[in-house]
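hey all, quick one before standup. I had two proteins in the batch that finished overnight and I want to keep them in one place so we stop losing track of which output belongs to which input. First protein below, input sequence then C-alpha cells straight from the run.
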Amino acid sequence: MAKQMWRTYDLKKTYDIVIIGGGAHGLATAYYLSKMGVKNVAVLEARYPGYGGSGRNTAILRSNYRTEEGIKFYDQSLGLYENLSGELDYNLMFSQQGHFTLGHTESGISGLVTRAENNKALGVNSYMLTPPEIKKKLPEIDISSHVRYPILGALYHPPGGIIRHDAVVWAYGRGADKGGVEIHNLTEVQDILVEKGKIQGVKTNRGTIHAKKVISVVAGWSSEVCRLAGVKLPFVTHPLQALVTESYKPWLHHVVVSGTLHIYLSQTDRGELVCGDGIDQYPHYGMRSTLGFMEAFSSHVLELFPILHNIKVQRQWAGLCDMTPDYSPIISPIDEVEGFYVNGGWGTYGFKASPASGFNTAKMLAEDKVPEMIKPFSYNRFRENRLVGEKAAASVSS
C-alpha cells in the first residue's frame, strides 16, 4: 500500500503563520520554517500541491542573470538545489547539463556579453561561445547564414540544467510535514481578515483561521489574493504555454534558449522534448494551450533544429505568470497591513528560485527581519525608483 506524502489534518482555529499557496515556493517556505523551529504553520492550497505554476513549468534551472541582485539570489538558489536531493532524501533528477542562450543580432550578442561579464564578476560560471563552438556541443543545430535569424554566438552556463518539478514539490511537502507543518488541500482562501491595519486571519471554505502572519505565495493569482487584503501591487498575469513531445532516443544534452525567437527546449531522461514559447501577449487567466502557440513554436524551433520537422507532440498546457514592471519578484512585508507578506511576481522564472525564495522568506517570517539577500525585492521599490531590471535575462518573457 502506498504511503501518503503528507498527513491529513482538521483545520485548527489558530496558527502562528498561514501560507496561502501549496506550490514549490509555499512548501519550501514551510519546510525552512520548520527547520528554524517554527512549527505551528498551515499551508492552504485551493486545489492540490503543485496544481499551479510548480506543476506547469518546464523546470529549467540557471543563475546567469543580469543584475547583481538577481545573480546573487539565483546563484544561492542553484547552490541549494545542488544539495537538495540529499537534504530531502528524495531523487529530484537534477541534471546540470549546461544552458545555452543564443544570440542572433549584434545587440543581442552585446547583451549576452554584458551578462557573461557580470556573471564572471560575481563568481558565476558563464561565458560566450562562437558558432563553431556551439555546433561542437550541439551537432544538430543549424548555424548556417541562410536562415532568418543566424546564430552569431551564445552565452553558455555549464551549471544550468533541468530537474523533475513535481518531485521538488513532493519532497518539500514531505519535508515540511515531517517538520510539523500542516498541509491542507482543497482549502480555498475566500477572504483575508484585517482589522485596524493588522492581519487577524483568513476565512476559508472550511472555516475561519486566526493568525498574526499571513503570506501570499500563489504565483499567477497574486493580484486576486492581495485584493482580499486590500493591497494593490503592480502584478500583471500572463499565461505561458508549453508542450512535450513523444519520447525519442536521447540527442539533446543541453538546455537551449533563444531570446530572439522566444523559445526554449530540453530533453528529459525519458526522451521527451520539453518546449516552450514566450508569454501570451495579452493578460488573462486562461490555462489552455492554443493552436497559435503550436504554430509559432514549430516555425521557430525548425529554424534552429530542422531535424525536428516530423516529431509528434504528446500534450500542451499553460501556466500563469504574474509579471512585475522590472521583471523581478516582490518578496516583502506590506507596511500598510501589519502581518501581511507577499511572495510573487516571478514571471517565467519562479521555479528555479524556489529554494532561495523559501529559505529567505522563512527567515523573514521567523525573525521579523528582511534578509539582505531579498531586501532589493521590496514592494516599495517601485515608489522609490530603485528597480531591479531583469528583462534582459528573461529570455522568453516579452
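OK second protein, same deal, sequence then C-alpha cells:
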Amino acid sequence: MVRVPVQTELFRWALERSGRTEESARSKFPKFSEWLDGTRPATVRQLETFANWTRTPFGFLMLDSPPEDRLPIPDFRTTSGRTLRPSPDLLETVQAMQRRQEWMQEFLIEEGQEPLAFVGEANMKDSPKKIAESMRSALGLSKEWAKQEKRWSDALRSLRQAIEAAEIMVVINGVVANNTHRRLDVNEFRGFALVAPIAPLIFVNGQDAKCAQMFTLAHELAHLWIGAEGVSNLDRLQPVGAAVETFCNRVAAEFLVPIREFETEWQIVAMDQDRFDRLARTFKVSALVAARRALDLRYIDREEFFAFYDHQIQTSVELRKRSTGGDFWKTQGVRIGDMFGSAVAQAVWAGRLLYRDAYKLTGLHGKTFDNYIAGLGL
C-alpha cells in the first residue's frame, strides 16, 4: 500500500478554501490527525477522496506549498482594498465558461463571424442613457420593448433571447456544471462577464432570486459595452467595491427603466400602497427592480428600499421551497444557452467535435446529451 506524505499546510489550505474544518475532517477521516503530523501519511486513494471532499485538484496536494487562489478575470467584489478569496465553485465555474468561450470563438471564426462592434465601444465617460440606448439598438429592442410582454418573467426570457440573438452567450446556472450538490453561493457572486470581440459571455448566478436576475443580466451586459470583464456581486442590488460596478448599475437601471418614463409614472402611483407592483406591471420588471429605480432617483430612502428588498427575497425563497422543481430540459436550455448548444450540436453532426469533448463542454453525457440536442429542433 503506497502512502504519500503531504505538507501539513496543504491540508489546512484545502480545508480553508472549501469551507471545511479540521473537526469535520477528523470526523470524515479518522486518521486525519496522523496525516497532519506525518506519523502515518494517507494512501493515494485516501488523498483522492480528500481532494474530492474539499473540491481540490489532486495535483495541488503534491505541491511544496499552497498555490495562490486567483480568479483568471478581474474581481470587482473587492471591498476596502481587500480581495475576497474565490471559492472552488466560483473558480471552476469561471474556468468552465472560459473553455466554452474559447471553443465558441474558434467555431464562430471558422463560420466567418466578424467581431462585434459594440463590445468595448463605450467608456465610463459616456452617459448611462447613451449606453443604454446603444444596448437596446444592438439587441433590436425599442425603448418600450418590455411593455409588450404580459409579465416581467416573460420579459426576462425575451431579454435573454435578444442578447443571444446578438451573438452574446448567456448562461444562467445555480450549480457547478450540472452538479446539484454544489450550489453556487449567491452571497459570493451574482454574475460575471467575459469580454471578447467574438463570443462574449454573460453568466448569471441562478441561485439568485428570479426577481433580481434581470437586473444582473443588464448589469453584466453593461460590462460588455465598456469592455470591463470581471466578477460582480450586488449586495441587495447595490454595487460592492469598484467604481465600475456603480457605473454598470446606472446603465442597467436606465436600460430597464428609463428615467423620463419612470418619473412620469411615479407621479401617478407615488401615493399608492402597491406602487412598486404597479410600476412593475408598467415596465415589465420585477417590483424589486422598480423599487431600486425609485431609490436611485431618491424617491424613497435606503431604509424603505432595504425593507422592501428583504421582504421580496424572503417571498422568493419561500416560493422556491414550495416549488416541485422545474422542467429538466428547460433548465438545460438556460444552463447551456441556445446559442452555444446549437453550435455544439452543429459541430457534432458535422464531425468537427467529438462526442467526448461535447460532453465536457455541456456537462451532459450519453443519451441525455442526445436528447438535449434532438430537442433543439435544428
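Flagging for whoever picks this up: The chain has 17 helices and eight strands. Residues 3-62 form a domain with the 434 Repressor (Amino-terminal Domain) fold (CATH 1.10.260).
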